[in-house]
Each structure stands twice: as structure tokens, then as C-alpha cells.
Amino acid sequence: MRIRMLVAALATTTAATAAPLQLYTEHNPPFNYAEGSEVKGIATNAVREMLRKAGLEATITLLKWDEAYAKAQSTAGACVFGTARLANRENVFKWYGPVAQNTWGLYALPSFSKKLAKAGDARFYKVGGVKNDAKVDFLRAEGASSIKEAATDAENPARLMKAKDDPDYIELWITTSATAKEVAAAAGVKDLKELLLVRKQALYLACNPRTAKADLAKLEAAARK
Fold it and tell me: How many CB atoms lie within 10 A of CB 9?
């Protein structure tokens, strides 16, 4: 009986280790984006290379960022990328990378006349960001409290143009500097002013710590190669 139980336990462990990892990310070019049925991008390519070195299989799914983050946080065998490795997240995930480098900026319409000397100056204004995004966590740590979180970053540019008494109105938008103007233009905002580049930030693959230990060890080894 003990032998049969041991064999069953080993089989269960092997099956858990062999199951493909579930990787989640968002549409955020040039880091991650869909091209037909395939997910591509700078961060995606780096993650695929890490998986190849680790000898692991994975599925990659694009979701809204909040959904992607929540999936990785709650599900064994799930990971999210590319996400910033901040102090308040350190113990939430196991971290591998970096897989890309990002630059964050604060943006406004040309009519915004105030000057920002540092990220903390954003605390005086209504700022648009994305729910569960590291940029929002960063601004909060810098003292900002009037942050209005959207489900996707594509929603934020149009909120800059809303009436000041509209509950969704924002004065500033924190986003990825590489794609700020492109995302704004797609939302119908052709004129956008860059106020401040606030931070250069490495992006990582972050995995649920309840993921099979063998898989986590393989990712750790691959990230060091």
C-alpha cells in the first residue's frame, strides 16, 4: 500500500511539473502585443528565450493588465510579464529577468501650464493610470493620492479632454514613454505634452510562488544564463 501511495504521489508531482505554465500579459507594444493569433514583442521574445533555456512549455495569453496580474497572483503555475519589481510586490511573486527595460513618463494636454520637477509633484493633480499597474504604485509611494485607475491604458488619453467636473477627468497621465503619443493618437488625442520622465524601470517575469518548485528552479537557472 505504501509503495502504491508513493508511486501515486510521484506521478502527481511529475504531472504538476510537466503541465505547461500559464503566462499572462497585456497589450503594451513594443513589449507585448498580438499579431494575428501570436503574441509578440520585446518582453515576449525574452520570456520565450528564457523558457527555451529552462526546457519549459507555456501558454501566453493577453488580458487586461488587472486580470493578468490577478491570474498570476491567485493561480499556481501562472506568471505575469513584463511587470516592475517593486518593494511592495517582492514577496508576492518569484521573479525572473529582467526581460525588458521601460521608461515611465507623465503627460498632459498642451494647455496644462504647470511644471513638474519630480514625480512627487504629481500629488497636486488628478492622475490617470491603470489598475494594479506598477506606475500607479510608484506614484502612490511618492505621495500621490488622486489617482484614477482605468482597466486599460487606452482609456486614459480621452479622460484628459473631459470636463473638469466629470468624475473621470484627469489632468495628468502616467504611461510608457515609448508609446504615449501613439496610444493618445489612437484615442483621438493628437496633441500631447511630455512633462517629466519619472523613472527607468526593468520589467520581469513574475510567477506565483505555489508553482511547481522544479519549474521555478529551472526558470531561476535559465535567468542566470
Answer: 10
The CB-side HSE value for 8 (13 A sphere, CA atoms) comes to 5
Residues in the chain: 225
Evaluate whether 2-101+203-224 and 102-201 have a shared fold. yes
Query: 2-101+203-224 adopts what CATH topology?
Result: D-Maltodextrin-Binding Protein; domain 2 (3.40.190)
Calculate the alpha carbon distances from 22 to 52, 74, 169 in Å. 15, 12, 36
pLDDT tens over the chain, length 225 residues: 333 333 333 334 444 446 899 999 999 999 999 999 999 999 999 999 999 999 999 999 999 999 999 999 999 999 999 999 999 999 999 999 999 999 999 999 999 999 999 999 999 999 999 999 999 999 999 999 999 999 999 999 999 999 999 999 999 999 999 999 999 999 999 999 999 999 999 999 999 999 999 999 999 999 998
Listed in sequence order, the residues at least 6 apart from 39 whose beta carbon sits closer than 8 Å to its beta carbon are 25, 32, 33, 60, 61, 62
C-alpha cell at 110: 498642451
Grid cell 483621438 in the structure block, residue: 188
DSSP string, 85-98: --GGGTTTSEEEEE
What are the extents of the domains in the chain?
2-101+203-224, 102-201
The predicted model scores a pTM of 0.83
CA distances 118 to 121, 133, 141, 192, Å, are 6, 19, 13, 19
The CATH number of domain 102-201 is 3.90.226.10: no
Cα 84 from Cα 101, distance rounded (Å): 9
